[in-house]
Amino acid sequence: KTDHIICATDKSWATERHLVTGERITRPDLIKRLTTGTPPTLIAELASTDADDTATAIPLVVGTVEVTVADAVGEPVDTSNGGDSDALNEAHSAQLPPSSCTYGLIGLLAVDPAYQSCRIGSSLVRAAEEYARSRLNLSHAGVWVINRRTDIIQWYERMGFTWTGRELPFIWAHLLLDDTVRFRIYLKPLA
């Protein structure tokens, strides 16, 4: 048994094995995040199919996604003040270009390959958008997408995200198999 829990496999249509090796989060790190709620992690579960024992059935976790707050430059924003995003927006407005904003950064989206193409990923992204809007009081959601992943870029664009024209270095540089990999920042206004 490995300590790593989020795995890219060749079975997944969303594999990045040709660009990135290794894992972005370990089992202990994920457990810590889930037990502390920091950062908030949303979970997609399926009900047990065991009709004999629905009262004690343990749901099957089929996907997860995190929601944090970042500024338009891509820097994480400290929400320890209770998540007052108006204060965050005001505090950062003097430091950022006028078109910038803080946004709900949707990240570490993972769906069990056996359940991909079942709308679980898009459901998780929509739930993360709603969390950013209603719980964090933010007007935008954002994702960082690997620039070489045209399939994922198109998927996010179909969901209403637009490339800002900004790119960031891949934050797990030691995992790169291709040194041209960067993150593109995509944003979406939240209604």
Please work out how many helical segments DSSP would assign.
Answer: 4
Structural class: alpha+beta
Helix content: 10-25%
Shape summary: globular
Structure description:
It is globular and about 55 Å long. The model is unreliable at 1-9 and 81-99 (pLDDT under 50). By secondary structure, the chain is α+β, with helices and mostly antiparallel strands. The protein has 4 helices and 6 strands; from the N terminus they run H-E-E-H-E-H-E-H-E-E.
What topology emerges from the helices and strands here?
Elements lengths: L26 H10 L4 E6 L13 E11 L14 H9 L9 E9 L8 H15 L5 E7 L3 H9 L3 E8 L12 E8 L2
Parallel strand pairs: 3-4
Antiparallel strand pairs: 1-2, 2-3, 4-6, 5-6
Summarize the structure.
By secondary structure, this protein is of the alpha+beta class. It has 4 helices and 6 strands; from the N terminus they run H-E-E-H-E-H-E-H-E-E. Strands 1-2-3-4-6-5 form a 6-stranded mixed beta sheet, covered by helices on one side.
What structural keywords apply?
disordered N terminus; 6-stranded mixed sheet; alpha+beta; 191 residues
